[in-house]
Design a protein that fits this description.
Blueprint (H helix, E strand, L loop, with lengths): L1 H62 L2 H62 L2 H29 L5 H39 L1
Helix pairs in contact: 1-2, 1-4, 2-3, 3-4
Length: about 200
């Protein structure tokens, strides 16, 4: 019993940890990647615009003709305009990714809430075990709170302004809720498996 219980606990803990880790890694990697892409593209674009501007300015000085100077100025202005447009597109892309990453995280946690509900319903309908059902309920509520936190984060990036400190507070307690929820589900699974084995041996 002890060996199988340990296997069941390890299996469920691994699944929950993988889901949580995948979600957090997705968010963090997404943030880092979008920030890195945005910064590198902005740097490269700015460098190219400045290089082209300096090159054209040097050509103007060397050529020295008033007519040629005017022509180079117009060409340089057009190139700067093109660079500015590219910067705007890059900025929009980074903004979209900053919204998309937490939105995907919210969908992942919402799927976990759906699984938590089915597990809770199964435990109560099959075994009428109050303690383990209560643990699964705690897990469901914690994951549901985490979904709400993700929703607020997405809304703060799209619809409404949310105070930075309050948002940071929510994200912190969202992580706490995620940890408590995972622990509740793992412990509940362990106790449920133990009770099931115990009842089978009695029979």
């Amino acid at each position: 019993i002890g060996e199988r219980l340990a296997e069941r606990l390890a299996e469920h803990a691994g699944e929950r940890l993988a889901e949580r880790t995948g979600e957090r890694v997705l968010e963090k990697v997404g943030e880092r990647v979008t920030e890195g892409i945005g910064e590198r593209l902005l740097e490269r674009t700015t460098e190219r615009v400045l290089e082209r501007t300096l090159e054209r300015s040097g050509e103007r000085v060397l050529e020295g003709g008033a007519e040629r100077v005017g022509t180079r100025l117009v060409a340089t202005t057009l190139r700067i305009s093109e660079g500015t447009t590219l910067l705007q597109y890059i900025g929009k892309l980074v903004e979209v990714l900053h919204v998309l990453v937490p939105a995907l995280g919210m969908l992942l946690v919402a799927h976990m809430v759906h699984q938590d509900f089915h597990r809770l319903h199964h435990e109560w309908s099959q075994h009428r075990a109050r303690f383990t059902t209560g643990l699964f309920l705690v897990g469901l509520l914690c994951d549901a709170f985490d979904v709400c936190v993700h929703g607020v984060v997405v809304a703060s990036k799209t619809l409404v302004h949310v105070d930075h400190h309050w948002l940071h507070w929510l994200e912190h307690y969202g992580l706490v809720a995620a940890g408590v929820g995972m622990a509740s589900m793992v412990v509940g699974e362990g106790i449920s498996a133990y009770n099931l084995k115990k009842s089978r041996h009695k029979d």
